[in-house]
Write a structure and sequence with these properties.
Number of strands of chain A: 13
Order of helices and strands of chain A: EHEHEHHHEHEHEHEHEHEHHEEHEE
Number of helices of chain A: 13
Strand content of chain A: 15-25%
Largest sheet of chain A: 7 strands, mixed
Oligomer: homodimer
Largest interface: A-B, 63 and 62 residues
Helix content of chain A: 25-40%
């Protein structure tokens, strides 16, 4: 597999937007444009769905001007557009399923695509795994690589995922500001801040890192890795009120009671996405009503919502630098080392000083598994994170990667 | 009134927090520490309420180290704490009302307070006006000054208010990011973003300024200055869908139907604050449900909530510079020109280039009036802002005033 495979490359983005997915795209483009084995670098609009419709762009053409790549690095969301398409089983016997894969490989052949890079989260790695299985059955030489991306930080095998650091920096920065905001009045009040993360509490955990620096952080932090108990929550609030009148709480959207019901269930829409995930909304709102009924004090709920995943104006420099690097490395190992069917990943060598290496691993061992926050990162009471968790997260939010501004507004690229 | 009045000064903050109210405090401190007429500079904790409890701090002591003042400038929310206290009528005949004012002036006398600076919004100017009326009845020489502050930008007499520019920069920056985020999918979807502003739509208007720079901005912008019609909103959405599948809408929390009912009324808590203002919540949520029922497509609502008023990490440099300047000028006119019972304010000389002057005016002509967005800043359809509005807002969000960071988190001062 170490022979030079000469041909064209295609790159796509999939799943939810992040502040770093375009930095990874820029890394792939840089890597591909400077690799002798790769001729044309195509971008697929809206992921695999757009590729099927042959909605391709010539990225070498667009990024002749290097300064545009720099603007791409700082632009949030998926510049090529995204999709949420679940691929059929490549071992399926159904005619329509086979027709799908036939169509994909027809397009590969038509455009002489020999390198396929897919930037995304768990569901996107599923796509990479399935295309790899089908490619193995076909007599068509192609190298298929997954490049991780998700604010949820829940992919297995990698120390962390590109996009997490920037989302964590937004959440932790805004939390230091909300804590200051809530401290101005002397009246008893509870502010409940809801953070994204359905099954893994990584992003909610980042709300609490200030405590390691002696900065006022939320009093309480609740992750979906622990069963949520309303009684214990009320007890923790009572203890917190003994210290000061303004309590700030960070909760993950995905916290559940011991019986499995989501805390926000009463206020959720009940619909599910194509992967069967339930849409959640209103976990903080549900807690707001419960705390108001119990304590009778002022209670507010704040959903950090979309800004936490697209807040490129406060992106982590570490995250953007790493995102560019991992995109370029995916190209290098595919083109120079013949790697295929794998995902590039980060291996942490040490936290202090922060040192990491980029490795790669079979995507079949990665897709469809969720990496949760481990026990040693959550305190015994299940209502805050530990110092070890802070030491894990802090290097990932280090450094500020500011976009350029014009007349007061950030300059973002539109492809 | 031009004689030198020698004595101590006291400064307080009141009303809702902003990202610039501490910059104004820093300006007052700088001005007072360098003015020969002023000896000790006291800060009152939690506004007039804290002063009554003699919860005072010696600010000259705290800010001996100049670098601390710089950190104060970049710190969001009210470092001295705030309050929402409505003062009684100074012309009242009631014994308890008179006792209140007697107590205030006893404290003035006890600490030899000859300068009183109160940084706040509309309700705080009411405090300044009432203290000034009472001071005029008393044989006690004191100069009382109001320094404006509010993200709502709704004070009359001034071109704009300190704090508005930074909140507007947060809102407009995050909107450019939300628009990018929403553009990634090809499926029909509406995203409704709710911005603070009960009676005046200034902050919601700032969500739309990107259009003047050719940046993708929200498709529709609704201010409380216009009656809201659900039928016209649906019609505007239909027109917008003809251009692209992803519609982004910015709405003020305070939009009302022609009959006066708040759009978010169904979801509001019904309670009021001490000034009789209704608490609103869920305007975007109410619209989300209505649009979902009408169009059957994916609809999301996003409340920008607290982060828009405390987002010091993306403060406007123009706003922070002006906020320091107006605080220092309040001290100068009080001490050097004998001005009292007035509010310092901005007068705009031109927008291109942006030039302003700081003036002052009787606070009795300012308090308890609301300055709304004028007709010429809202388009004929009532669903977006005009170019003239953009030209008004853009200079106020110009420049980035970043705080210092340590290990990835902003360094904010706690007094």
């Amino acid at each position: 597999m170490n022979g030079k495979l000469i041909g064209n490359a295609i790159v796509g983005q999939s799943g939810g937007p992040t502040a770093a997915i375009n930095a990874t795209l820029a890394g792939v483009i840089k890597g591909a444009l400077s690799n002798g084995a790769i001729k044309t670098v195509y971008g697929m609009r809206n992921g695999i769905e757009g590729m099927l419709a042959e909605r391709l762009v010539d990225l070498g053409d667009i990024f002749l001007d290097e300064s545009k790549l720099d603007m791409l690095i700082h632009t949030p969301a998926a510049a090529l557009g995204s999709c949420r398409k679940k691929l059929p089983d490549p071992k399926s016997e159904k005619a329509e399923d086979m027709a799908f894969f036939e169509k994909v490989f027809e397009i590969f052949k038509k455009y002489d695509i020999r390198y396929f890079f897919y930037i995304g989260g768990n569901d996107s790695m599923d796509t990479v795994a399935k295309l790899s299985v089908y490619a193995a059955k076909k007599d068509y030489d192609i190298r298929i690589m997954g490049v991780p991306k998700t604010i949820d930080n829940d992919l297995v095998a990698t120390d962390h995922t590109p996009g997490f650091g920037s989302a964590a920096k937004f959440v932790s920065t805004v939390m230091t500001e909300i804590v200051r905001d809530c401290a101005v009045y002397t009246t008893k009040a509870v502010t409940i801040v809801e953070v994204m993360g359905r099954d893994a509490g990584w992003l909610t955990a980042s709300a609490g890192v200030g405590k390691a620096l002696g900065i006022d952080a939320p009093d309480l932090v609740y992750l979906p890795e622990r069963d949520f108990s309303m009684e214990e929550f009320f007890a923790s609030l009572r203890t917190a009120f003994e210290k000061h009148p303004n309590i700030v709480v960070a909760v993950s959207e995905g916290i559940r009671f011991a019986d499995g019901r989501y805390v926000g269930e009463g206020t959720q829409s009940g619909s599910t996405d194509v992967f069967g995930h339930k849409y959640l909304a209103g976990t903080a709102k549900a807690l707001e009503l419960a705390v108001k009924a119990e304590f009778g004090c002022k209670v507010r709920s704040v959903e950090l919502n979309l800004p936490q995943r697209c807040g490129a104006h406060i992106a982590s420099k570490t995250d953007l630098d790493e995102s560019v690097a991992i995109g370029a490395e995916a190209v290098r190992v595919a083109a120079d080392e013949g790697v295929s069917g794998e995902m590039v990943l980060f291996e942490r060598i040490s936290s202090t000083p922060y040192v990491y290496e980029i490795k790669h691993k079979k995507v079949s061992e990665i897709a469809n598994a969720v990496r949760c926050v481990p026990d040693e990162y959550i305190n015994a009471e299940g209502n805050h994170i530990t110092d070890a968790c802070c030491e894990y997260i802090l290097p990932l939010i280090e450094g500020e990667a500011y976009p350029e501004y014009e007349r007061g507004l950030p300059k973002y690229i539109v492809l």
